[in-house]
Amino acid sequence: MLDLLRIRERTGAQMVMIGDPLQTNAIEGGPGLELLREALGEEAIPEILTSVRQRTEREREIAGLFRAGRAAEALEMKQADGTAELVAGGREATVQRVAQLWHERTAANRDDPNFKLTVSAATNADCRAIGAAIRDELRRADKLGPDVAVLDAVDRTGEVYKLPLAIGDKVRVFDRLYNPRANGRRSVLASNGDVVEVRAIGAEGMLVRNAAGAEGVVAWRKIQIGPGEPVRLAYGYATTVDVAQGSTATEHIHALLSGSQAIHGLKAYVAASRHQHTNWIVVDEASERRQLVGRTMLGQRPDIAEHDVWQNIGENLSRQPVKASALASLQRQSRQGPRLSR
């Protein structure tokens, strides 16, 4: 950011940036917007007061409650609407329920050519499990042909796994890939986290189509660390919340396979605001109950009701660990004054 601001100062270029301090967090970066406010002044940063992604007032209200750290109230509204559900039976049962819901919503909107359904989860491992389950649904519905290749693959977790591929499969890439079909122009085919559709598979690579409709060949060597190494690919039927940030869909499914303690309110708000019409939240009930049991004293057998489970989810999804800058820490320390120690 500092380099960009220096370039702007040197060249006179105009920079237009959009950000929200209550959407996820930079893993290593600090609170960029707060630092810009300190540097440029409050009046230099306009504020967007309304959002138009959600098409109904109720959905905008629910998304606003998640943003305000009032997830418990948002969840009450979603339970009333039938768009939040607990799944008994553990992680695998929750994976299967997400895939089933994906099939139900896709089938219910089959006549809408503009319908788009996306799925997000907390981790790459969760996305891989959901992706395999959704792929099974496609296979059962005869919407996916036979497997034409089985690759050794790896994602950000570092775990190597078998990745069967068929024509029509959606896959996520973890590299920036340039389109060799761009007639000499340096055109990006896909970037880290992007989802592409497999159009053909050969010995040297695969032909893919990106979201913009551009097609290009991805050589296996371009997505390998070295010869004989696994390809960096995963199914693209679900993405992490971080990757989903900035996307828009007709409907969105947020899957909490390890319970609500796996994420915080900043990510919950992102996942709760990707949709235009409906946002679904599917939670592994067993994970929530394990967390509640873990808080009780040894020897006690807590009587956990469904209300307690939802209350726990609301508390977890209301946590908003906004980062403080070093400058803010210094200012807070100066206001408090020096501390004397014995």
What this model shows, in words?
This protein has 342 residues and is of the alpha/beta class. It has a domain at 17-116 and 248-342. The protein has helices at 2-11, 32-40, 57-67, 71-81, 91-108, 124-140, 241-244, 265-271, 285-294, 306-316, 326-336; strands at residues 84-87, 117-121, 147-154, 160-166, 170-173, 177-178, 188-190, 195-201, 205-209, 215-219, 231-235, 239-240, 249-256, 275-284. The strands form 3 sheets. Strands 4-3-11-5-8-9-10 form a 7-stranded mixed beta sheet. A 5-stranded parallel beta sheet has the order 1-14-13-2-12. Strand 3 (147-154) and strand 4 (160-166) form a beta hairpin. Helix 3 (57-67) runs antiparallel to helix 8 (265-271). It is globular and about 65 Å long. The model has no long low-confidence stretch (mean pLDDT 90).
How would you summarize the topology of this molecule?
Blueprint (H helix, E strand, L loop, with lengths): L1 H10 L20 H9 L16 H11 L3 H11 L2 E4 L3 H18 L8 E5 L2 H17 L6 E8 L5 E7 L3 E4 L3 E2 L9 E3 L4 E7 L3 E5 L5 E5 L11 E5 L3 E2 H4 L4 E8 L8 H7 L3 E10 H10 L11 H11 L9 H11 L6
Parallel strand pairs: 1-14, 2-12, 2-13, 3-11, 13-14
Antiparallel strand pairs: 3-4, 5-8, 5-11, 6-7, 8-9, 9-10
Helix pairs in contact: 3-4, 3-8, 4-10, 5-6, 9-10
Specify Rg, calculated over alpha carbons. 23 Å
- Helix and strand composition category: alpha/beta
What's the rounded overall pLDDT mean? 90
The shape, in one word, is globular
Order of helices and strands: HHHHEHEHEEEEEEEEEEHEHEHHH
